[in-house]
Each structure stands twice: as structure tokens, then as C-alpha cells.
Write a structure and sequence with these properties.
With 140 residues, this protein is mainly alpha-helical. The chain has one domain: Rossmann fold. It contains eight helices and four strands; from the N terminus they run H-H-E-H-E-H-E-H-E-H-H-H. The strands form two sheets. It has a two-stranded parallel sheet with strand order 1-2. A two-stranded parallel ribbon has the order 3-4. Helix 6 runs antiparallel to helix 7.
Length: 140
């Protein structure tokens, strides 16, 4: 499951199509509406919604279907910490693409630089992402 901010981040950084080619990205109708044209090609799931908010509907849908979540939203991520579901941000998805060798080192550098221009990650998140990237490079 992917939220609107993550769709927009991956599109703005330039690697949404590569991500879609390597993962089946799914979302709820409300998120697809929020993301607009950026959400083209993302599968829409209908889920039993018990909440009024889009964020909670996304979390509920992920829980109902036992799906990992890609999100930049602190509220969503804090809700997911209380569950058994894995969750990631777009920086980790960029690392994933590198790990599975869907992108090469130069592409990684290009997308990373693009993400740095607008992504609102804390220094701690940037540091963690860099340490994951280093581990990937050492394993290859």
C-alpha cells in the first residue's frame, strides 16, 4: 500500500515507473484521488472502511490485507509502529531498487540527489538511509 505523499515523492524524484515495474503498488481510492495523475498505473483496492480519515482508511486496508505500507506521513508511520506490518519511506524504496539491481550506481545517485532537493526527512533518516545504502554496496 502506498500513500499520496510517497507517490508524489517517487514521481518528483523520477523513479515511480521503476518502482511500479518492480513492485505491485496498491492504494485506496481516496489516495488515488489525492495523488491525481501521479497515481497512474497504481492498483486501487476497495476495503472495508471504518474510519473517516484517509490516513486511517489506508492503515485499515493494509491491516485487512496484511500489506506493507510506503508512507512519508508521521501519523501513518506511528500507527503502523503499533502493528506487525512492515513500513517504508521513499528513500528506503530507492535503496530497495538499488538492492535488487533495478537501478545502477549512477541512477541511484541521480534519484538520491533529486530526492534530497525536496524530501522532508530528518538528518537521522538521511543518515539511516545512507547506512543502508553503504551496506548494499558492501554486499554487492
Amino acid at each position: 500500500m502506498i500513500d499520496a505523499s510517497s507517490i508524489i515523492y517517487a514521481r518528483k524524484a523520477g523513479f515511480i515507473k521503476i518502482l511500479q515495474a518492480n513492485l505491485e503498488l496498491m492504494t485506496i481510492p481516496e489516495v488515488k484521488t489525492e495523488a491525481g495523475d501521479d497515481a497512474g498505473g497504481i492498483v486501487t483496492m476497495q476495503c472495508k472502511a471504518t474510519s473517516e480519515t484517509v490516513d486511517q482508511k489506508l492503515v485499515d486496508c493494509a491491516l485487512q490485507n496484511n500489506l506493507a505500507v510506503i508512507s512519508e506521513d508521521k501519523k501513518i508511520l506511528s500507527k503502523l509502529k503499533q502493528t506487525h506490518l512492515p513500513y517504508f519511506n521513499v528513500l528506503m524504496m530507492l535503496n530497495f531498487l538499488s538492492y535488487i539491481e533495478a537501478i545502477d550506481r549512477d541512477q541511484y545517485s541521480h534519484y538520491y540527489a533529486a530526492l534530497r532537493k525536496f524530501a522532508w526527512y530528518s538528518p537521522k533518516i538521511w543518515y539511516y538511509g545512507s547506512s543502508v545504502r553503504s551496506a548494499i554496496e558492501q554486499s554487492n
